[in-house]
Every structure is written in C-alpha cells, then in structure tokens.
Amino acid sequence: MVEVVEYRAEWPRRFEVLRKAYDDALRAAGVSHRIEHVGSTAVPGLAAKPVIDVDVIVTAAEVPAAVAALETIGFEPRGDLGIPGRQAFRTPNRFAPSNTYVVSEGSLALRNHLAVRDVLRADGVLREDYASVKRQAAAAATDIDDYLEQKSEVLGRILRAAGLTDDERASIAADTRGITGRGAHG
Fold first, then answer.
1. Strand, helix or coil for residue 89
2. Which class for 139: exposed (0-12), middle (13-18), buried (19 or more C-beta within 10 A)?
3. CATH code for the domain defined by 10-176
4. Selection from 171, 181, 159, 49 nearest residue 115 by Cα
5. Alpha-carbon Rg of the chain, whole angstroms?
6. What is the value of pTM for the model shown?
7. Where does the chain have alpha helices with state H?
8. Are 81 and 104 in contact (CB under 8 A)?
9. Cα gap 45→127, rounded to integer Å
10. Would you list the domain boundaries of the chain?
11. Which neighbouring-strand residues pair with 118?
C-alpha cells in the first residue's frame, strides 16, 4: 500500500535539516553544488507520500566527488537505476524518510524534478488535479508501480505545461516504468 497524506507544514523544515547536513559534507569535500527540495513535499498544500525528495545538483564532472561526500555521512550509492544523469542512494536511518539524488546540472532528470515542482507551485488547478489522482491511486494501487502508472497521465499534463517536449516526456515515462522509487513525484 502507498501512503499519501495531506500537506504537512514541517516538510520544509525537515528539508532544511537535510540540506544543512548534505551541504556540510559536500563543502568539506570541496564539491561545488546546490541543493533543491523537489517532489510533492516541496509544493505547499499538495498531498504527498511523507518522504522528502532532495536533489544535490553538480556538474557531470563532480558527480563522483558528490557521491563520495554523501557516502561519508552514511549514504549507500545505488547507481543511476536506469535514469541517466541521476545517482540514487539507500538512505541512512538518521535521514529517513527521504530520497536523495545527485543529479547532473542540465540533465533531463533534474529538469523533470524542477518542472513538476515549479508547475505545481504555480498552477492551483493542476495541483488539485494531481492531489486528487494521487489520493485515488494510493487507495487503489496494488503496489508502487501501479501507483506510478495511475499518475502517469496527469504527470504528462504537468510536464507538458512545463514546456518539456514530446520526446522528453516520452523518455521520462519510459525511464519510470516498472522500477520502484525512481522519480521524485511523491
């Protein structure tokens, strides 16, 4: 079963705790970066799975150093899980519940995450449509893959509103089919 809850005011504060810990580790390693709160918990008022999604954004050349820096604070690298430009991790208990990714600046994975967040922050109608679909999918889904599939149509509309091309949307849809926990769309 997938849990979707109403928006919680503590989510931005939880992100700030994570951001600070990640920033400290990355700075200690000399990695130039920025850190973004993505996914549904980053959208005020949006129902979400209660898991904070975080993108650590670096140049492609700095990805290995960023991965190594996060390892020093307990993250276990899992590779790209089939999504180019993004490295996933197994989260240590002290940072759970969260999903953390190192993403390459300019990658489609990053543009996807930021597009969904930014469109939903700006468009109340799409935000409510997405929330409604998420609640229905969480109640009806047999597993996380089914939940993701049930959200795919509205996510396509969100990405279209963000200006992603047909090819980019098709690539994102293909990347997320059949693999659990791959997107930051809580």
1. strand
2. exposed
3. 3.30.460.10
4. 159
5. 16
6. 0.92
7. 10-28, 63-71, 108-122, 124-140, 144-161, 166-176
8. no
9. 8
10. 10-176
11. none
